[in-house]
Design goal:
It contains 9 helices and 8 strands. The protein is globular, with a radius of gyration of 17 Å. The relative contact order is 0.15. It is an alpha/beta fold.
Length: 254
């Protein structure tokens, strides 16, 4: 992504555009570039898009959990003086958004979840028994998408590096276990933040049944499907993803 990162205080982030703020929360294995389409489209349509780098591998192990990342987000929004934001999260980022929405609903105008954890998900594998095997990691990375070619060499290399770095692997497993423990099913019925669910019909990590359950349990949610699409709709079908989200925002007068 050809954008300049800003570093201020304890935060590194990407910021573009002016208007209604949309704050993006990336996933465990996902970087800021996963949302390149969102970063190009929405600033050109009257929105401010801000993506903080989450401290996935930087917090002490005992604080490497979903709740701590939600508190990190609260610190970031406070630092930036942002209120009435729309949170957009994929995978772990969606889960962080849910925890944040449950804790600080007064700071949010809307929540957008795509392939979000928070109910249940199929993990890449807790033990990574073949983590030294590049082809194994390549196949696992490709399984995230409906179209395996979306898993570029750059993406596969990053996952391979992560699971072969002992510190990062320990943190990754801690986060995965934290996400499993922090099931949101009992919290969702009382969460009134307007929520847009955009899901791949072929998501094998957080399958379609997860989206249906989110839609059932969240009292103020709308569910949209993208066909021939896996766990990261904003990467596989960026134009369709942006159109769905933009129309939802306009319907909500955001």
């Amino acid at each position: 992504m050809e954008n300049i990162l800003t570093q201020e205080s304890d935060y590194i982030y990407l910021e573009k555009g002016e208007g209604q703020p949309i704050v993006i929360l990336h996933g465990l294995m996902g970087g800021l570039s996963n949302f390149a389409g969102v970063h190009e489209y929405f600033p050109a349509n009257g929105y401010q898009v801000i993506t903080p780098e989450l401290p996935i591998y930087d917090l002490p192990l005992k604080k490497t959990n979903v709740k701590a990342f939600a508190e990190y987000l609260h610190g970031f929004l406070t630092f930036k003086g942002l209120t009435d934001v729309i949170l957009l999260g994929n995978s772990l980022g969606g889960h962080i958004g849910l925890v944040f929405a449950n804790t600080y609903p007064e700071l949010l105008k809307g929540l957008v979840l795509t392939g979000s954890s928070g109910l249940y998900e199929n993990a890449m594998g807790e033990s990574y028994p073949k983590r030294g095997n590049y082809d194994y990691i390549k196949n696992k990375s490709e399984e995230v998408f409906y179209d395996p070619t979306v898993a570029t060499k750059e993406i596969v290399d990053e996952v391979f590096e992560t699971v072969n770095d002992r510190n990062k692997l320990i943190k990754t497993l801690a986060i995965a276990k934290s996400a499993i423990r922090h099931n949101m099913s009992k919290d969702l019925p009382s969460m009134l933040t307007p929520t847009c669910l955009i899901w791949g019909k072929n998501d094998g990590v957080t399958p379609p049944a997860v989206a249906d359950e989110f839609n059932t349990l969240l009292p103020n949610s709308d569910l949209f499907w993208i066909d021939k699409c896996g766990h990261a709709p904003m990467m596989e079908h960026p134009d369709e993803f942006n159109q769905i989200l933009h129309q939802w925002l306009k319907n909500k007068h955001y």
